[in-house]
C-alpha cells in the first residue's frame, strides 16, 4: 500500500514564530515548504498594504494551491504550510485538504503570550525593515482579535510547542 504524506500546518498569534518553525519542520521532515507570504508577494506584488488587502488576496490564493497540496500528499510527500491556521474556519480548511488527499495531518500550536509575540515583532521590525509598516502593536492587536486557540472539538492532531 502506498504511503501518504503528512500535512503540517501552524497556529499561533502574529509574532509567535510560525515561519521560523515552518522552516525547521520542513527541514526535519524533509518536506515541501509552502509559504503564504512568498506566494502572496510573488503573485500580488505591492498590492497588500492593509489587513483587509491581506485577507482578500489570501482568499484568492487558497483555491490555487489546494489541488497542488493534495497531489503532493497523495504522492507520499510531506508538506509544511506556512499559512496561518489561527481560526476554526482556517483549520477546517487544512483538515479538509489532508482528508481529501487521504493523508495525515499535524497542527503545530505555538502557544505564546501577547508579550512574547510583541517582543518578537519588535525584533522582526529591526531585522526585516520591509515589514515595519505591518509589524506594529496596533496591527498585532487587530489580528489577534480574530485568533482562536485550537481545541479538542476540532478533531485535530495537535502538537503544542
UniProtKB/TrEMBL annotation:
Protein's recorded name: ATP-binding protein
GO molecular function: ATP binding
Record-linked Pfam families: AAA_33
Keywords carried by this UniProt record: ATP-binding, Nucleotide-binding
